[in-house]
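Let's study my pick:
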Amino acid sequence: MKPTLLVAALLGLLPATAHAQGLVSLELFRVEWTVRTDSWVKPGIDGYVYNSSGYRVSNVRLRVETLDGANQPISERFTWVYGNIDHRGRAYFVLPPPPPGGTYRITVVSCDPVAREAP
C-alpha cells in the first residue's frame, strides 16, 4: 500500500475513535479518595473510581487539583487508573502526595469505552 493511501486510511479511523469517547458521559463516574495520614505509611492518596456508565471502560485518566482556601486550583496534574472498570464496578488507585495545599479535587477527565454491558 502506498504511504499516502495508508495515511488516508488511518485518518479515516479517527472520527470513529473520537466518537467512541462521546459514548460515555464522564458524569457517570464517582471518585472517592483519602489522604494517607498514618505515620507508618508513606504519604499519598488512596482511592476508588466507580463506574455507573453502561460500558466497561479502560484508560481512565484523572485530574488531581490542589485547591486554595477559596476553592481555586493552584496546581494540577494528571494520572491514570490502570485496568478495566466494569459497569457498576470500581478500580483502586494510589497517588503520590500532591503539592501541599488546602484541599484536593480529583475528577475523571477521559476514558476509553471497551464494551457495552448489560444492565
Summary: The radius of gyration is 18 Å. The first strand starts at residue 29 and ends at 35.
